[in-house]
């Protein structure tokens, strides 16, 4: 990646957030889920998703209440909340993403509907999580290898000032992303 390398303030990375046995159980649970296509700007992405707590519409950018996080996934939300230093209940929206081999997610910031802290767990294949902000001579970049079973937190500038992306993954990968809501919902 071209640009000046700078670690985003507010990025936390934790290898081995879950152990091998926990990952196997999580992957079995995720393999059993029904996933939905992601359609953005008329294009269907290779990755597929499942939302819990709140569904997110990629066209209208709206949140609507949906089914609760399954019991089998609540312990990992608690672990992620501990990593982020927040109460598990404030992580009200869960995004489960299934990345088949060679799928990507382009440069973006998590939608404005989501609050100041995003916590993720990477399962299956390793991947690179890339960051960028600015352009030209002011461009700043950073990249971290997300190992299987690792967790990360985006808060502060890592959440608000930097974009992130994932280049093509080499093999099947799942991510669990736990997000706060920007404004309280009832």
From TrEMBL:
Any GO BP annotation: demethylation
Organism: Micromonospora terminaliae
Keyword Hydrolase tagged: no
Highest rank taxon of the organism: Bacteria
Sorted UniProt keywords: Dioxygenase, Oxidoreductase
The protein, known as: Alpha-ketoglutarate-dependent dioxygenase AlkB
Domain Fe2OG dioxygenase: from-to ranges: 90-182
Phylogenetic placement of the source organism: Bacteria, Bacillati, Actinomycetota, Actinomycetes, Micromonosporales
Pfam families: 2OG-FeII_Oxy_2
Record flagged with keyword Lipid metabolism: no
GO MF annotation terms: demethylase activity; dioxygenase activity
């Amino acid at each position: 990646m071209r640009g000046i390398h700078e670690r985003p303030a507010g990025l936390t990375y934790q290898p081995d957030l879950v152990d091998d046995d926990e990952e196997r159980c999580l992957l079995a649970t995720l393999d059993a889920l029904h996933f939905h296509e992601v359609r953005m700007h008329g294009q269907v992405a290779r990755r597929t998703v499942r939302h819990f707590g709140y569904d997110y519409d990629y066209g209208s950018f709206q949140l609507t209440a949906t089914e609760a996080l399954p019991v089998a996934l609540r312990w990992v939300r608690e672990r992620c909340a501990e990593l982020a230093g927040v109460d598990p209940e404030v992580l009200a929206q869960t995004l489960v993403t299934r990345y088949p081999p060679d799928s990507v997610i382009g440069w973006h910031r998590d939608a404005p509907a989501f609050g100041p802290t995003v916590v993720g767990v990477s399962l299956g294949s390793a991947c690179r999580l890339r960051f960028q902000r600015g352009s030209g001579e002011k461009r700043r970049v950073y990249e971290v290898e997300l190992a299987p079973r690792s967790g990360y937190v985006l808060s502060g500038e890592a959440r608000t000032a930097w974009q992130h992306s994932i280049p093509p993954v080499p093999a099947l990968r799942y991510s669990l992303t736990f997000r706060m809501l920007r404004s309280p919902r009832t």
